[in-house]
Design goal:
The chain is an alpha+beta fold. It is built from three helices and four strands, in the order βαββαβα.
Length: 87
């Protein structure tokens, strides 16, 4: 469906995120505090941007399989830090 896909563990209850995310994102509860997202986008950079908008802490499942996403997240973080006056 998407050109780039990843599984993400979000530190939020599934019911909190399912209301805010498009139906194309599959949200599975892991426990009462975390959920797994099956998400994607046209590019790793775009997915990093979407993840930044979640408003919750998250981790990438199988990060070794997603070096492009990890690099996009670092770039996203660095740019936001500079914009906020962090150098």
């Amino acid at each position: 469906m998407w050109e780039y896909e990843a599984r993400i563990i979000a530190n939020a209850p599934a019911e909190d995120l399912v209301r805010r995310l498009p139906s194309a994102v599959v949200v599975e509860p892991v426990d009462e505090r975390t959920c797994r997202l099956h998400a994607g986008s046209p590019s790793p950079a775009m997915l990093a941007g979407y993840l930044g908008l979640l408003g919750v802490d998250f981790t990438i499942e199988d990060p070794e399989q997603h070096p492009e996403l990890l690099e996009a997240l670092r770039t996203f973080s660095d740019r936001r830090g500079r914009a906020a006056g962090g150098g």
